[in-house]
Write a structure and sequence with these properties.
With about 120 residues, the protein is mainly α. α1 runs antiparallel to α2, α2 runs antiparallel to α3 and α3 runs antiparallel to α4. The protein starts with a helix and ends with a helix. The mean pLDDT is about 95. It binds protoporphyrin IX containing FE (2 copies).
Length: about 120
C-alpha cells in the first residue's frame, strides 16, 4: 500500500511540476526554474523511485519509519518548492522555509537509506 501511495502522490506532483514548466515557457519568465526543478525531481522522480523501491522489496515498507518517510516526503516537496519559489519570486525573507525543508529532506533520505541498508 505504501508503494502505491508514493506513486499516486508522485504523478500529482508531476502534473503540478509540468504546469509550472508550461507557465514558465508560455510567459517566457524562467525565474522559477529552481522551484520547477525541485518540484519535478523531488516530487515526481524521487517519490516515484522510493515507491518503486518499496514495491520491489516489500520488507522495507512495513515499518513505522517507512510510513514516516511518506509524510516527510510530502513536507520536503511542498516546503522546498514553496520556500525556493518565494526566494526566486523576490521574497528572500522566507528563506527559513527552504532551510527547514532542506533539513527535512536530509532526515527523510537518511531514514530511507537506513531502511534500504538494513533490509536489502
Ligand atoms: C510540460 C513539461 C515541461 C515544461 C514545459 C518544462 C519547462 C521548463 C523550462 C521553460 C525550463 C527552463 C529552461 C531554461 O531557462 O534554461 C525548465 C527547466 C528544467 N526542467 Fe522542465 N519542463 C517540463 C517538464 C519537466 C520534467 C518532467 C522534469 C523532471 C522530471 C523537468 C526538469 C527540469 C529541470 C531539472 C530544469 C532545470 C534545468 C537547468 O538547471 O538548466 N522539467 N523546464
Ligand atoms: C536538501 C535539499 C536541497 C537543497 C537545499 C537544494 C538546493 C539547491 C540550490 C540552492 C540550487 C541552485 C539554484 C540556482 O540555480 O540558483 C539547486 C539546484 C538544483 N538542484 Fe537542488 N537542492 C536540494 C535537493 C535536490 C534534489 C534531491 C535534487 C534531485 C533529485 C536536486 C536537483 C537540483 C537540480 C537539477 C538543480 C539545478 C536546477 C536549477 O538551476 O535550479 N536538488 N538546488
Amino acid at each position: 500500500m505504501l508503494a502505491e501511495k508514493f506513486i499516486k502522490s508522485a504523478v500529482i506532483y508531476l502534473i503540478i511540476g509540468l504546469l509550472l514548466g508550461l507557465y514558465m515557457a508560455m510567459t517566457q519568465d524562467h525565474s522559477q526554474i529552481p522551484a520547477h526543478a525541485h518540484l519535478n525531481l523531488l516530487g515526481w522522480v524521487t517519490m516515484a523511485l522510493m515507491g518503486l523501491v518499496y514495491k520491489s522489496w516489500p520488507p522495507i515498507s512495513v515499518s513505522k519509519i517507512a510510513a514516516l518517510t511518506y509524510w516527510l516526503s510530502h513536507i520536503s516537496v511542498i516546503g522546498l518548492t514553496i520556500g525556493i519559489g518565494l526566494i526566486y519570486a523576490g521574497y528572500p525573507e522566507y528563506e527559513p522555509i527552504a532551510a527547514v525543508s532542506s533539513i527535512v529532506v536530509l532526515i527523510n533520505v537518511s531514514l530511507f537509506a537506513v531502511l534500504v541498508h538494513r533490509n536489502l
